[in-house]
Amino acid sequence: xxxxxxxxxxxxxxxxxxxxxxxxxxxxxxxxxxxxxxxxxxxxxxxxxxxxxxxxxxxxxxxxxxxxxxxxxxxxxxxxxxxxxxxxxxxxxxxxxxxxxxxxxxxxxxxxxxxxxxxxxxxxxxxxxxxxxxxxxxxxxxxxxxxxxxxxxxxxxxxxxxxxx
Length: 165
Known about the structure:
By secondary structure, the protein is mostly helical. The chain has six helices and no strands. It has helices at 2-20, 23-29, 34-73, 78-88, 91-118, 124-156.
C-alpha cells in the first residue's frame, strides 16, 4: 500500500505535469513515442522494484530479529533462531507470495499510474484528481487481488497456513 501511494502518486503527478506543460505534445512533434519512452520504463521499474523492496524488507526483519531477539529475550540462541526460520519459511512460500504476487501488483500500479497520468484533465486540479484516483484504484485493486491470490494460494498449498518447526 505504501508503494502504491508513494510511487503511483509520483508517476501520475509526473506524467500529468508533463501533459499540462505540453511536453507530451512536443515529444509527438519530434517523432518520439511517449508511451515507449515514458510509460514502458516506469512500468518496468515498478514491476521490478516491488518484489525487490519486499525482499529487502523481509530480509531486514529477519536480520533484525536474528540480531536483537537473543539479546532482549535471553532465551534464544542465534543458531536456534536460524533453525526456526529455516523450518518455518519454505522456498515455495517465498516464491509465490513474495515474487509472483508482488511482481503482478507492481505491474498493476505502474499501468494504473501511467494511464491516469497520461489521461488527466489539464490544470492542477485535474492532476490532483488523477493522483487521488490512482491511489484509490491501486489500493482497491491491491486489496482485491491480494484476497483472491491468497485464497487461490491457500487452496493449492493448504499446508502453507500450518505452523512448522
